Amino acid sequence: MMIYNLRKAIWITIICIIVFGLIILYSASSQSTRVTQQVFYNQLLFSALGLLAIFFLSRVDYRQYYDFAYLFYGINVLLLIGIFLFGYYALGAKRWIEILGFNFQPSEFMKFSLILALARYFSDHKPKVSFYNPWAKPALISEFIIPFMMTAFPMLLIFKQPDLGTAILVLVIFFVVVFAAGVSARYLACFFGLCVLATPVLWNLMKSYQKDRLMVFLNPNIDPLGAGYTIIQSKIAIGSGQFFGKGWLAGTQNQLNFLPERHTDFIFSVVGEEWGFLGGVALLICFYILIISSLRVVAQTKETFGYLAGIGFVSIFALQVIINIGMVLGLCPIVGITLPFISYGRSSFLVFILMFGFLINLAKKNKIL
Amino acid sequence: MRLKILKIIITCLFGCLVLGLGYIQIIRGSYYQSLGVHNCIRVVPVEPSRGRILDRNGIILADTQVSFDVMVVPQEIKDKDALFSFLSEVLQAKTKTLLNLYQRRKLASFAPVTLAENISRDQAIILEENKFRFSGLLVEVRSKRTYPFREAGAHVLGYVGRVSPERMEKFKSYGYTIEGMTGYSGLEEYYDNFLRGGEGGVQIEVNNRGQQVRLLGMKVAAPGQDIGTTLDARIQQLSQSFLAGERGVIAVMDLDTGEILGLVSSPSFDPNDFLDNAASQRRASYFTDPHAALLNRAIQGQYPPGSVFKIPIAIAALNTKKLNEHTSFICNGFYTLGNRVFRCSHAHGVQDFIQAIAHSCNVYFFHTGLILGPKTMEEYAHLVGLGRLTNIDLPYEEKGSVPRPDALAKRRWSKGDTLNFSIGQGDLLVTPIQLLRMMAVVARDGKDLLPSVIKSIGSNPVRREALMHDINISKVYFEKIKRGMRGAVADEAGTASLLLMNDMIVLGKTGTAQTSGGKSNHAWFVGFCPQTKTRIAFCVFLENGGSSYNACRIASELLREMKKQEIL
């Protein structure tokens, strides 16, 4: 009974989030000079298809992904390499690739396939150190180096596109899955230390606009027209929404075109302006319920592959929500990460559909076992 | 256990988000509210100064100079009538015209509207002094594009203007704004991205009466980069003067590098007119001109090549070994096919291969064309680059057309078509730049080259690259064709004997292409100088210019003048 309720909770919150997202997108695109209302109708169609897709994907036995995990991973890495050869530039970065007339961002799909690949790897090579056997001698290469290589290669490709945000997310995926798999805490601590040491090197590798964004995060007023413009306008929009918001289609910042990128990365600022603190918190609660119910599903899973992949999916979803809203509020740097199910964009939407199809199936299997 | 840690972390982070949201919306809410509701933040754009265009010796072809514009900010206007009557007095324009302009250009209440551009310094001072009396009035210092050589070479340079709505649609994601300037046609369009620089601006916070409360920040406009070209201003001016009153093209290219030294199309236009409000009538006339002054005939005009096409036919004849240089035919001055008579310029008598090129004997090439057959001719036309873009770095290049004998639309290919094809008539159309490239490739014994106008961007030298289509045939064949082309100049009876000079060796091929509709013929001379200081290939084309004699005359004057000025 409990498990059935979890599935219900996941379904209901996803539908709530998508419907709320459509209502917001309608407002964000209604007066825009940058995009037309077409954006809304595209997303409407895509949401409907997406919900159908979740329904059918949830009937696919999640253990089938185990067989294809490495294949997905391999194809995805090839696509990332393909970007360097055949991809095209848009907005200063080489991220998109065209296959059969569709534009893809393989970096988005990498989140999905990397999690599957790591989950399979650790279900095949269970770490020796675990809760049951905390004093076993850990194996550095099989427990840490190999999975790290599996992550580092696609991560570098994504970083070079350049797409700092997704590259960081990929690194965090690694960290979460390794953590959940029960790899020795010593390794994790060392790795964390290395990351901190590598920061200055990373800084030198960054594109100048990425440095700008970090600097502007520290003080948006140094460049209010350039990199700081978005964050200042976004804060004004959210702040001026106050407790009750200005009402649907009534946000002045939104409707007067002050907010750039408001149909994609900055869509939460439209929520804040038009729906106020109430709307913002309501949306956050929806996200929170979805995440916690999914985590519960994962906690009931006994089988390693499903357990690890599930944790990876929930974490990446939670992280995107937190980073996206955090950057819109000016709490963390602008890294170009979408708000799941709400931002306009197909690749990102599709990835989360795949993930939740998987999670719902996981919930179903738990019920049977 | 570890799952629980994850849950705690996520819960904490969500807590932070709720707190952050609460801080901005509830605690600081009224501050942001005041910024937002009153539209208190205004962005005033500052345009970057556009990069210059320089010739190969550093002479300025397109410059950027300071000018003054009058603007008003709609939301700050208090007394509209007083303001506009004052403006009409100072600018000496009708109040009604100004009001119309204002209505048409107004976008949003906070966006400044430009009412007059390029006003005199005196007018600017008067307005500036009275600014405090009329709120909403702005005088902006703006950089203005000037073209010192006016008509000479205008087509290569192009012109600048406001971003049109269609262009906005295409480029808005690259930071173009409706008030900004952008390049149209020529280098101004092709290299716009480098020339335009990045827009800057100041962002200020104003109170609800429109007075500035504080400067939130500013971003300095990034000036555009200068573009160094391969053009030679002297050649451009000479070419322009030789083409005065004519319709046609003069194009000069460095044989060794493919650098375009000169490229002039006539009739031309003055790119300064596009920025001068007083010249609006002349500007409009460019668009309605029956002779299409804005058309760059060198890359967009498509014409039959006439006898110049005998060069690829000659290459085909030698390379397929259907003919050799001793093959002779007798020319009686005409060739009869059924009841149709195809004429030659006059009865040449016995002609061998070399003489036939030198004298441009049609009858000889009728025979050659029938021996080769239309398919082979089509193949060699493509081989020398006809029907294909030269990929010169100028926008809107046309690729002409080569007839396809086995795929005619309405009728079957006849022998008469073959005869016409073999002397460059009929459905064959080429651009002057294609023939120029063809001649250069022949001069280089088949080695392809890429015509380019760009030499440097900013301080970085630029080398363009493209797929090369070398003609891989024996050098011996090229030597024979060159003997024919030298004969055209050096023989007494040669078609281009006007170009025989004692201090310069010129090789080339004339062409007189018939046109339909009773207009006069097109005149061509395409040639090269293999031994000058800078080895050049050149093309002189006169649209409806009569006999090729006229093209030869201009070519010889141009070469003599270039020699005199020590360019060659």
- Whole-number mean pLDDT of chain B: 87
Tell me the span between the first and last alpha carbons of chain A: 13 Å
Shape of chain A: globular
Low-confidence stretches of chain B: none
Beta content of chain A comes to under 5%
CATH superfamily of the largest domain in chain B: DD-peptidase/beta-lactamase superfamily
CATH-derived architecture of the largest domain in chain B:
3-Layer(aba) Sandwich
Oligomer: heterodimer
Total domains of chain A: 1
Strand content of chain B: 15-25%
What is the helix fraction of residues of chain B, given as a range? Answer: 25-40%
Mean pLDDT of chain A: 81
Detailed description of the structure:
The complex is a heterodimer of chains A (369) and B (568). Chain A contains 13 helices and 3 strands, in the order H-H-H-E-E-E-H-H-H-H-H-H-H-H-H-H. Chain A has one domain (2-368). In chain A, a hairpin with a 2-residue loop joins strand 1 (88-90) and strand 2 (93-99). By secondary structure, chain A is mainly alpha-helical. Chain B has 568 residues and is an alpha+beta fold. Chain B is 35% helix and 21% strand. Chain B has 20 helices and 21 strands. In chain B, helix 10 packs antiparallel against helix 20, helix 13 (310-319) crosses helix 16 and helix 15 packs across helix 17. Chain B starts with a helix and ends with a helix. The model of chain B has no long low-confidence stretch (mean pLDDT 87). At the A-B interface, helix 6, helix 9, helix 11 and helix 12 of A face helix 1, helix 2, strand 8 and strand 9 of B.
